[in-house]
UniProtKB/TrEMBL annotation:
Residues 1-14 have a biased composition (Basic and acidic residues). This is Oxidoreductase. The lineage of its organism: Bacteria, Bacillati, Actinomycetota, Actinomycetes, Kitasatosporales. Residues 177-256 form the GFO/IDH/MocA-like oxidoreductase domain. Keywords: Oxidoreductase. Residues 1-22 are annotated as: Disordered. One of its GO terms (molecular function) is oxidoreductase activity. Residues 22-135 form the Gfo/Idh/MocA-like oxidoreductase N-terminal domain.
Amino acid sequence: MDTPHTPHRERPSEEPAGQRPVRVGLVGAGPWARVTHAPTLAAGPETELVAVWARRAEAARELAEPHGAVASESFAELLETCEAVAFAVPPAVQAELAVRAARAGKALLLEKPLGPDVASARAVSEAVTEAGVVSQLVLTKRYHPTTRDFLRRAAGHEVSGARSCYLHGAFLGGEFATSWRLEHGALLDLGPHLVDLLEAAVGPVTRISGTGDPRRWIELTCEHSGGAVSQASLSGAVRLPRANTRVELYGPEGELTYDTAELEHSECWPVLRAEFAAAVRTGRPHALDAAHGLRLQELLARALSS
């Protein structure tokens, strides 16, 4: 028998909405939800984790209880308890449930890719637009101060060409070697991060092509609106002591390099949380929204079909 749910503590009604933490429900109870989403959303003060729903009820309870949240018995029940929904599930599950959440008027904190294919990603983006709800992507590195400093410097740097990579060995085994990652490979899992960084640093991608096997190693070549050309190497199946994410910009002024080797990823989460809560409370779309996620997925699909 399920254990009784702990009633959620209602906040005083006289507290201004802009000052109340955003009440977030979390979908998923896997490793990424345990390590990142739940502790980040529960830490506040901008957000409050109020509920968790997962396919396995026991996993949802085990994740919810230490953070003072309840385990919802259904996705519909989770929607009734929150004003925003965060997703930490495979792309196919996210694509289906995010559409339902948007239609229910909930703000969305989304993983990448939005869905397993462009059609499902477009359905999410269109649902967000039609419902007029706020959405935001967990493109982790974009929330780190070091990344933002690099992008500020890149804005004033004339770029002729760029090289980049995102490489690790997580697909070789362990809890992150999940079935959807093994099926789709690095292009859909790592590609959104790297193509997003290249667009932000070099300019919009106008043409993209790819070669290789996304499950082993894939190489992308991008042409950018300003005339620069960039290359991106992606793999989740190479044995490395740690993930290697690097962007090198070259031009008449010299080299500008971004490297995540020394980054503390824990510095990303408070920024992400604060910006998501601000977007929800103001109703102003975040730059890294579902429409941006759709654009990234369309680019990656073009690379795969080239």
